[in-house]
Amino acid sequence: MNKWQEFRQASRMHFVPLMAICIVQGTLAAWVWNGEFNIWIALITMIGACAAHIFSMMINDLWDYRSGADKAAFESDEAISTDSGYLTSGKWSERNYEIVSWCVLGVALICAVVLYFLSGWGVLLLGGLGCFMALFYVVPPVRYGYVGKGMSEMAHLLSFGIFPVMGSYYVQTGYFDPRLWILSLPMGILTTLTFFNHHFLHWKTDKQVGKRTLVVRWGVTKSFYFSIVLLSLALLSIVMCVVFGVIPIYGILALIVAWPLCRMYSEMKGEKRNLQNHQRLLWLSLRTSLQFGGLLILLQLISRWLNI
């Protein structure tokens, strides 16, 4: 295995398309609504945002490893570990993992500085807030990801939905648009749903080490129904996008993509909420999020071509 493949696995890069979709959405909104598009700014934004996402995943793994959360899940028969495994298995040393993490953050910061000089103060505002939430999700003394009470879910909605969509629009135009709040909701809520569902896989070991996610606080049953609420809100946000003219009216057809995920939730009601089914639910949530994102991008392009 070469170094690039190792990095992809260590950084859990399979989640990065969630961020990339948001960047494309905001960039396309600037082009579709205002006719403004600078490819170099778009590329720098994409590199910086994806680097920030990778840093958030790696620093999360690093401090979950240090807290004992990942090691407990790795060694338990009652949990499925969702980290990269590079620390718990000893493939990378803790020191090397930390160095790579900070180097990735360095890339994100360089992109942010360049975009600040090209586009203005909004980059520092959104970038600073995003950096704070990524760093202190599990890093002391804040560690709000260990507190629960919905703080993690709100951070995911902002960091993987609202902020990247608004930011990628801002760097192209130099201002914000109220419609961005609505445009960012489907991906923001679906990404929140995806990350929420991964807590089901190791809630018992999270509880052992003091990581009080909502699943730990509420228990599996209540959390499962909250997961259904998140999916319902994501579907409702698609309808809102149509009602407020953010996407064309035929965008309502995107709801069809959610059918397999809805069916999975239906199957898991009752006595079928075991670890294996929750693992399937996690990956189906990720797949549905990516499919929704792809369709929303396609709808934005179609509205541009048809001048809707």
From TrEMBL:
Keywords: Membrane, Menaquinone biosynthesis, Transferase, Transmembrane, Transmembrane helix, Ubiquinone
GO molecular function per UniProt: prenyltransferase activity
GO CC entries: plasma membrane
Pathway listed: Quinol/quinone metabolism; menaquinone biosynthesis
Main subcellular location: membrane
Keyword Iron: no
InterPro entries: UbiA_prenyltransferase, UbiA_sf, UBIAD1
Pfam family, one: UbiA
Descriptive protein name: Ubiquinone biosynthesis protein UbiA
Organism: Paenibacillus bovis
